[in-house]
């Protein structure tokens, strides 16, 4: 029954997955590869990256100009958090992470060039 409920919730949301990362660490590597794979599989992914000016429209993506990463978090079935060396130093990333955790939806952490034992609550 959980799968049916999850599918119903997911179908009402704009995004299947929200990608949270800090661009300087990951934008041209893992994030680009993940986004491309998701696109090829028909998975709707929102990238929270530094190309988003003032939490608004992202260059090159087809998004509503008023859509912010916070809105996208609420409108995503799951989130992938790419924890990299500079992720924790980004106020924007951490504020987004708080919102993601508050929603109690599926969260997949990816440890990219960091040791998981170095990441604390």
Q: How is this structure best described in words?
A:
It is a single chain. Strand 1, helix 2 and strand 2 (45-48) form a beta-alpha-beta unit. The model is unreliable at 50-65 (pLDDT under 50). The protein has helices at 2-12, 23-40, 69-74, 91-103; strands at residues 15-20, 45-48, 76-83, 106-111. The protein has a single domain (2-118), classed as Toll/interleukin-1 receptor homology (TIR) domain (Rossmann fold, 3-Layer(aba) Sandwich). It is 40% helix and 20% strand. The chain is an alpha/beta fold. Strands 2-1-3-4 form a four-stranded parallel sheet, sandwiched between helices. InterPro entries: TIR_dom, Toll_tir_struct_dom_sf. One of its GO terms (biological process) is signal transduction. This is TIR domain-containing protein. Keywords: NAD. Residues 13-121 form the TIR domain.
